[in-house]
Amino acid sequence: MGKVIDRNIDIGPFVPAPDDDMLICRCEEVTKGEIRKAVHDGMWTMTEIRRYLRSGMGLCQGQTCSRLVKGIVARELGVSPADLEPATARSPMRPIEMKIFGCEEVDA
Amino acid sequence: MKRYDLVIVGAGPSGLSAAIEAAKRGMEVIIFDENEKPGGQLFKQIHKFFGSKEHHAKIRGFKIGQELLKEANELGVEVVLNATVIGLYDDKEITVKIGDGINHYKGDAVIVATGAAENMVTFPGWTLPGVIGAGAAQTMMNLHGIKPGNKVLMLGSGNVGLVVSFQLMQAGCEVVALVDAAPRVGGYGVHAAKVARCGVPFYLSHTIKEVEGDEFVTGVTINQVDSSFIPIPDTEKHFDVDTVCMAVGLSPMSQLLKMAGCEMEDNPKRGGQVPIIDDYGRTSVPGIIAAGDVSGIEEASSAMIEGRMAGICAAEYLGYCTKEELEENLKILEDDLESLRQGMFAPKNRGKLIEKTEEGIDISTNLLEKGYISEKEIERYPGVTHKVGIHPVIECTQNIPCNPCQDACKKGCISIGANITNLPIVKTEGNCINCGMCVASCSGQAIFLVDEDTGDGSSTVTMPYEFIPLPEVGDKGFGLNRKGEKICEAEVVSVRAVKAFDHTNLLTIKVPKEYAMKARFFKALA
Predict the structure, then answer these.
(1) Could A99 and B104 be called an inter-chain contact, meaning their C-beta atoms sit closer than 8 Å?
(2) How many folded domains does chain A comprise?
(3) What is the mean pLDDT of residues B327-336?
(4) What is the pTM of this model?
(5) What is the C-alpha separation between B254 and B266, in angstroms, rounded?
(6) B97 and A90 in contact by Cβ < 8 A?
C-alpha cells in the first residue's frame, strides 16, 4: 500500500520547464508538462491523474508510461515513487474490442 | 466454465517449470500465454546460459525452452497460446480472451507467471520510430529473423544490454556505442569483454541527450553526466544511427495479482510493484502463487527454480503431495536458488562497488569502466598462466556462479573447486590436448587456447567465434586486441565446427608471437 499523502502540504507553484512538451504517454499523447500541471491542479494520486488526463488508458494500457508518470508525479510532490499507490488494476488487462469483450463463450 | 486443478498464466521459464512439477504430482494443469509461441523470453535467448549442470549451464536459452515445453507436453499439460488472460477474480475465476470470445475458467490454484515489461527512459525524440526496447530487438532478430536496423546505439550496460548488443552484431548490425549513465558496466564482465573486442566503444557515465530525425531516427547525441547524473556541458558526441535500443531494466507485470486482491508492495529492489510473498512465492491469497519476474526481477535460471517451487506449493495446497514432500523439495530448490544468488552480481550485492574478488584479487577497473580488461591487469588472474605448448587462457575475472569449464576439461587443466563462484584456475601441470571443449563450453566466451611460441616466431590463438560468414583456413586479416583495435596481421590456420561445440565455432589464428597474449579477436580483410 502506498502512503497516504497529506494534501495540506505546499508543493509550491507550477514552474514551466524546457522539457514540458515531451510526450510521456504516447498512446494518449499526454506531455510531461500536462502531468506536472495536473499535480498542481490537485491530482495527487495515480488514479486521479489517469482519470484527469487519460494517461495510461490507451492502447498499451500504461505498460510503457505508468512508471514514467509515477516518477513525474512523485518528483512534483517531493515524495518517493514507491509511496504512490499505483492506479487500480482491473479487467480487461489488455486492450480488447468491445465485440469480443461482450462475447461470452458460455459453453467453453 | 471449465475447472482445472491449476491454472498458470504465462508459459515462460517459470510457468512451464511450475506446470511440470504440478503435473508430475497428478494435477490437471492448463497454461495460458498471450503470445503465439510458448517459452516467454527463453525462446529469444540464443546464447549459452551460465551456471552449473543443474542450472542448464552451457545450453542455449531457446533449447532449454524447448526441453521444458516437451516435458510439459509429455506430462499432459495443456498449453493454450494466443490466449490473453484479462481478469483474475474472487474464487480464482479467470477470464481469457481466446479467438473472438471471452472464456471463463476456474483454477483451484493459480500460478501467476506473467513476467515483466521493459522500462523506457525519455529524451527528446524517444517516441520516434527506430527507438526500441532491447526485448523488441531480440524478438525481431531471434523470433522473426528481422534485422532491427543497420547502425544501432545501445543504452544500458546490464546483461540484457550486453547480450543484445552481441546478438545485434551476430545479426549483422553495427553497434556504434554502448552507453550507460552509471559509472560502471552493470552486467557480467565476460559479456562486456566479448562486445568490446568486436570494437564497440563503451561510454559509461553518459546518457542520451537527444535522438534526431523527423520521421524516423537518423542520429543520436550523447553527453557525459556527473555523479548526480547531471549532464556536463560541452561533452556531446554524435553518432549517425537508424536505431536506438534501450535496455534500462524491467518492471514486473503484476496487475493480475493486484486485481486478485493480493497484498502488494512497491519494492525498488525487486523492480517495482510486486506481490508480498513468502520464500516460495505464495501470496497473501491462499492458492495464488507468483513465480518468476512478476515477483521480482531476476533471470531465467532463477525463474525456473521459482516456478518449480510454485508448482510444488500448488500441489501441496490441493493435497497432491504431503507437507513432508513439500518441505523436502523446497529445501533442495532453495539451496539451488541460493547457489545462483552468489557472487559479485548476487541480488544482495546490487549497487555495491566490489573492489576485490573472493580470492582477494583486485577487480579490473578497466573492465568496469571500458568493457575490457587491460593488458596490465590480465596477468593477475588465476586463469591466465603460461607454459610451453598449447594451454587454456581463461579471462574470467569476476565471481559469478558458473562452472562448465571445469567439467569440460578431462585433462586436469582447469579447476574451479566446490565453490561455484570461484575464479577458474588454469593449472600448468595439466596436459592440454587442444580439444577445444573448454572454449566451446564457456558461456561467457572468455576461454582461449594459446600457443605462445610455435617455434617460427609466431603464436596461435584459438577463440570462440559465433559470427557468419565463418572464416576459412588461409583467410588473412587482422588480430584485434581486447578493445577491438587492429594490432597485427593474422591468418586463419584452423576452423573447427563440430556438433559437441553447439555452434560455438573455434577459430585459430596465427599471429606474431609478441601478440599471443594480446590478440583476442579476428577481423578478415574487407
Answers:
(1) no
(2) 1
(3) 96
(4) 0.95
(5) 11
(6) no
